[in-house]
Amino acid sequence: MRKLSIVALVLLMAACSSNSGLGDLGSIFGVPQTSSSNSGTVQATVNFVDTTNQRIDVNIQYVNNLRNSQGNQSIYYDNRTKVVYQGNSGYNVTDLERGDQINVSGNSGNGRFLADTITVTRNVRG
After folding, report:
1. Where are the domains of the chain?
2. pTM (predicted TM-score)
3. What whole-number distance in Å separates Cα of residue 53 and Cα of residue 116?
4. Cα separation of 120 and 67, whole Å?
5. Closest to 109 (Cα-Cα) out of 44, 24, 18, 22
6. What average pLDDT does this structure show over 107-124?
7. Residues 38-55 pLDDT 10s
8. CA-based Rg of the chain, rounded to a whole angstrom?
9. Mean of the per-residue pLDDT values of the chain
10. 81 pLDDT above the threshold of 60
11. What is the fold of 22-122?
C-alpha cells in the first residue's frame, strides 16, 4: 500500500508540473542525448516574435542533438544572437515574420534554449 501511495504522489507531482502553454526547448529537451555538450540545432517555423521577453514562438519540425520534440515551443535570443538571410548577417530578430522557416543553432541551459545563430531558410515574403 505504501508503494502505491508513493507512486500516486509522484504521478500527482508530475501532473501538477506539466505545462499547458508553450514549452521552452531547454526544459523540454534538457541535456542532449548524444554528447556531453548542451548545444543543438532546430528547424522550425516562426509563429510570433516577442521582443519584450526576447522570445520566438515556433513550430518545431526537426531537432538535432537534443531530445526529440515537435510542436509549439519557445526559442530565446539575446543581443549576441546573429540572424542570417541569404548569406547576409545584417538581419535582426525583429525582421522575422510569422511563417518564416528557420534553422537555429544554440544551447540549452537554465530551462531555455538560447539561439546563437538563426538562419532564415525560407522567407515568407519570398
Report:
1. 22-122
2. 0.68
3. 16
4. 23
5. 24
6. 92
7. 788 999 999 999 999 999
8. 17
9. 76
10. yes
11. OB fold (Dihydrolipoamide Acetyltransferase, E2P) (2.40.50)
